[in-house]
Design a protein that fits this description.
By secondary structure, the chain is an alpha+beta fold. Helix content is 53%, strand content 13%. The chain is built from five helices and four strands; from the N terminus they run αααββββαα. The protein has helices at residues 2-36, 39-46, 61-71, 123-133, 138-162, and strands at residues 76-81, 90-95, 102-107, 113-117. The protein has a four-stranded antiparallel sheet, covered by helices on one side. A hairpin with an 8-residue loop joins strand 1 and strand 2. It is elongated and about 85 Å long. The protein starts with a helix and ends in a 9-residue tail after the last helix.
Amino acid sequence: MNQRFALYRTIWRWHFYAGLFAVPMVLVLALSGSLYLFKPQIERWEERAFRSLPVAETVSPDAQGEAALSAFPGARLHSYRLPEREGDAALVHIALPGGKGMRDVFVSPQGKVLGSLDPDKRIIAIDRAVHGQLLLGKRGSWIVELAASWGIVMILTGLYLWWPRGRGRRA
């Protein structure tokens, strides 16, 4: 009986330490994951200055892409996002020259460059970096994986602690 009690206390201790490490990480991941659920609404809010534009004399998507590329000489076209609604600016995602990163360029229906955003500085990109790497790069990714492993330890030890042992059986 004493040996079973010692095992129970050891398992309880492992469960406690796993919880100390895993629970704060689970909370951070739950909050950042919850924010990601609102990605369309957040991006729409970020791009509010590029909405409800005049639609007279619209140009083709090719002309919009060329306008974005001419605003950043030497850039390469990466992707083009169609406007969600009539009067919204098109988003042209370009690769800057010399490997200096990417840029989201907003082009009006008339082919005028309205502005640009660094895709790595947008709210959802930062949220994704928090969720996957805790803003620490590869080390943060390792910490997230370690917390997931300790979460598994917490679940297994919790099951052991919870599992009925036949004490106090009623007939």
